[in-house]
Structures are given as structure tokens and as C-alpha cells.
Design brief:
With 441 residues, this protein is an alpha/beta fold. The protein is built from 14 helices and 17 strands. Strands 4-12-11-10-7-5-6 form a 7-stranded mixed beta sheet, with helices on both faces. The protein has a 4-stranded mixed beta sheet with strand order 1-2-3-15. A 4-stranded antiparallel beta sheet has the order 13-14-17-16. The longest helix is centred in the C-terminal third of the chain and has 20 residues. The two termini are 30 Å apart.
Length: 441
């Protein structure tokens, strides 16, 4: 009997006893390739000696200091490191313990920015359908995953949702990427005008949509149009890079691919690589100056924000990525992963789309490739794939189709940045076998 409330009460998880590199070992001695980084977290794999050494050294110096009393050298150094390579205009870092906290902070920063600058009527948050921004109430309200939101709706603040930029499902036949990007971005302008331009505070989006849609990148100049629309109406742009950021797509910040900079940017998962719970909200100089020239503080806080041990993990992870030129490996191995997926699934009768950037890739399963019709959700194809993959010593991140009956089940891959060509060959073969077995079930 367990006294833990596990994610699934009726399906107890295996017990992990050790991990090293890209492998986990369970209590029975079986090994698993971590091809999802947990939930796109473990960017350096497991038991990296440099990160472990940094944590031991920090523990000997300072384990905890409340930010109401102290800052720390390691937290300051991490902030310096993040801003040194951050998108243009971002100037300060707010360290928290995870992605949901980072999004909550960003939402509050957006609201406080407008109260500090004499625009208290700006209150509306716009996001996209089938997005995910976290599980705390503000983040959950902002996200557009209806299955996650449904039972908690009476507790959620009002948020507004527009269509995602999801080419496989929503781009019209014969419509160019440029035209589709313009049309999809136009939904934001229409929603701003509907709500009243001077009442909208922020638009929130993932540059590459994570688990809820399966590594969906925008097409064309979608985000350049979004940036222009936000600027036109004085709306803050919040980019959620909790899952897709910190190198996962081949650039440290995912929005680099789109050639834009946000007003607020959230990161977590790959920031600390799973070695400690850590997240951050990066804010622009104009937002910082509004606080500094107004009330002089951000009215928010958490007990463990700026935690020295967490900051030490984040700093060590980022230093290793830079020193070992791992972003180049993400790009190189990302190309190999895409080739492998195309070879294994490009002509598969039940794989409708293969997509993503860098080492952040996904396949979408469909009952019919021609119509893109999803499988009946009752079949739980994604759950079967996870089970079959685990039996074959492979960890992947499957998700079920949405409750709107449109999107299909998909499988997300986000292997550690240290993965090799041979590793990816094993990943693809085991995944192919797992998909075959799951579809036959």
C-alpha cells in the first residue's frame, strides 16, 4: 500500500531507483531510454557530474535564504547568464519554482504594469485554444485545454481564446503559409477589437505548442504579425517557453526562430534540467521601470523563490549547455530525429503529421490519413502506446485527442541534448514497435 496520491490511482507507477545519462533503471533492474526528458525537462540527461558537483558545492555554502531578507551570488549569476542571451528588451529575471508559478507571475506582472501606468481598465487575457500554461488557477484559466479546465471552470477567472496557428488541422487547402499566418494572427486583432482595445492586458502563447497539441510550431510570419498587433493596441505579449524553451528547439529561446521578442517570457523545465525545481519569468525594461518608478515593488512572492540550490542547478545546466556547444547537437540530432521519424512513419496509414523543431518532435495519429479523422477517444491509443513503449524500455510522452473530437492522439519526443545518432535509432525502432502493438490492441 502507498500513502502517496499518485497521478493514476489505479495504475501505480514503476519505481525508479537510479538514472544516468539518457537511461532510467527501475526496481527490477530494467532500463528505459528517456526519450521525452520526463516532460521535456531533463535536457542534460541524468547524474551529470558537473551539475552534481555544483549542487554539492552550493549546499556547503548556502542552502536556503528567504528573498525577503537576502539575495545570493548564485541567484544573481543565474539572472546575469539568462539576460546575457535573452531576446532584445528583456532586462530582469524573477526566479520561481516551476512553470505554473512563472506563468502566474507573468499574468500578475502584466496586470500590475497597467495599474502602475494608469490603465487599470486593462484586464482581459487572450490565449489560444488547445494551449497549456500550467495548473494553478490563473495559468489554468489562461490555457485552452478544455479537458483540463472542465471541472474547475467555476473557480477560474475569465480568459478569452482564439484559434491556434495549427497548420495540419486549420490551414486551408491551397492556402500559402504566408496567407494562413496572416489569417490566424488576424483572430487576435478581431478579439481585441471585440473586447475593446483599451481593456486587453496581454496575449499569451507558446512559440511551439507543447504537450497538449504535440510540438506544433507556427508557420510563416505568424508571430511577427502577433507582435505587430500587440504593439498596435498596447497589449503585452507573454511567450510561454516553459516546455519549448531553454534550447529544446535548437536555440536557447524558442522565439529566436520567429524573429521577435516578447514583453514577458516564462521558462522552467530545461532551465534546471530536473536537478532542482526552478522556473523564471523574464520581464522587459519597460515593465521593470514601471514598477521601479511607481510602487517600487512587485506585489507577489513565494517562499522558495530565488532558492540558492535551485539557482545553482539552473546556472550549472546553462553553463554546461554553453561550454559543450549542446545547442549545435540539438540542431544536428533534431535533423536526425526528423529523418528517422519520416522513415518510420512518413507513409504510415495512421500517422497524419510529423512536426516540431530541434529535439522537440511529435507524431499525430489518425484513423484516416485522407480525412485526418482522429481515433475514437475511447480507444485510448495514447495510453496503449505509453504502455507498449515502457514494455520496450522507452519513455515517450503521449497525449490523448481533444474533447472537441478534432485533434488526434499524439506522441511527443524530447530527448536529452546529449543524445546520439545511435540512441535515436533505438528510440525510433522501439517507438515504431510500440505504435504497431498499440494499434493492434
Amino acid at each position: 500500500m502507498t500513502h502517496l496520491l499518485h497521478r493514476s490511482i489505479h495504475t501505480p507507477p514503476r519505481k525508479a531507483v537510479s538514472a544516468a545519462g539518457i537511461h532510467f533503471t527501475d526496481a527490477a533492474g530494467k532500463q528505459y531510454i528517456d526519450a521525452s526528458g520526463g516532460a521535456a525537462v531533463s535536457c542534460l540527461g541524468h547524474a551529470h557530474p558537473d551539475v552534481l558537483a555544483a549542487l554539492h558545492a552550493q549546499l556547503d555554502r548556502l542552502a536556503y535564504a528567504h528573498t525577503g531578507f537576502f539575495t545570493s551570488d548564485v541567484a544573481e549569476a543565474l539572472a546575469d547568464t539568462l539576460i546575457a542571451s535573452a531576446p532584445e528588451g528583456l532586462s530582469h529575471v524573477y526566479l520561481v519554482s516551476g512553470g505554473s508559478e512563472a506563468v502566474e507571475a507573468a499574468l500578475k506582472m502584466a496586470r500590475q504594469y497597467f495599474t502602475e501606468t494608469g490603465q487599470p481598465q486593462r484586464r482581459h487575457i487572450i490565449a489560444r485554444r488547445q494551449s497549456y500554461h500550467g495548473n494553478t488557477l490563473g495559468a489554468l484559466a489562461t490555457g485552452g485545454n478544455e479537458w483540463r479546465r472542465a471541472q474547475f471552470k467555476p473557480l477560474l477567472m475569465q480568459a478569452h481564446h482564439i484559434a491556434p496557428c495549427y497548420a495540419y488541422r486549420e490551414q486551408h487547402a491551397g492556402e500559402s503559409d504566408a496567407d494562413y499566418a496572416l489569417r490566424a494572427a488576424g483572430e487576435l486583432e478581431a478579439k481585441i477589437l471585440e473586447l475593446g482595445p483599451d481593456t486587453v492586458a496581454a496575449f499569451v502563447a507558446e512559440p511551439v505548442v507543447g504537450a497538449t497539441s504535440g510540438a506544433v510550431p507556427a508557420v510563416g510570419d505568424y508571430f511577427k504579425h502577433i507582435r505587430a498587433i500587440c504593439d498596435r493596441y498596447g497589449v503585452l505579449l507573454i511567450l510561454d517557453e516553459v516546455m519549448c524553451g531553454m534550447g529544446r528547439t535548437g536555440s536557447l529561446y524558442a522565439c529566436e526562430h520567429d524573429g521577435i521578442a516578447p514583453d514577458l517570457l516564462t521558462i522552467a523545465k530545461g532551465l534546471g534540467g530536473g536537478y532542482q525545481p526552478i522556473g523564471a519569468t523574464l520581464l522587459s525594461r519597460k515593465i521593470y521601470d514601471a514598477f521601479a518608478n511607481g510602487s517600487g515593488f512587485f506585489q507577489h512572492g513565494h517562499t522558495y523563490m530565488g532558492h540558492p540550490m535551485a539557482a545553482a542547478a539552473g546556472l550549472a545546466v546553462q553553463q554546461v549547455i554553453a561550454r559543450d556547444n549542446l545547442l549545435a547537437n540539438v540542431r544536428d540530432m533534431g535533423a536526425v530525429l526528423r529523418e528517422n521519424l519520416q522513415s518510420a512513419f512518413g507513409q504510415h496509414p495512421h500517422i497524419g503529421d510529423i512536426r516540431g523543431r530541434g529535439l522537440f518532435q511529435a507524431i499525430e495519429l489518425v484513423a484516416d490519413r485522407d480525412t485526418k479523422a482522429p481515433f475514437d477517444p475511447a480507444r485510448k491509443i495514447h495510453a496503449h502506446i505509453k504502455r507498449e513503449a515502457m514494455e520496450r524500455g522507452l519513455m515517450v510522452y503521449p497525449m490523448g485527442g481533444t474533447i472537441d473530437g478534432v485533434q488526434g492522439d499524439h506522441v511527443l519526443l524530447a530527448p536529452p541534448f546529449i543524445v546520439t545518432r545511435d540512441d535515436l535509432g533505438q528510440v525510433t525502432q522501439r517507438l515504431s514497435d510500440a505504435v504497431k502493438a498499440a494499434l493492434a490492441a
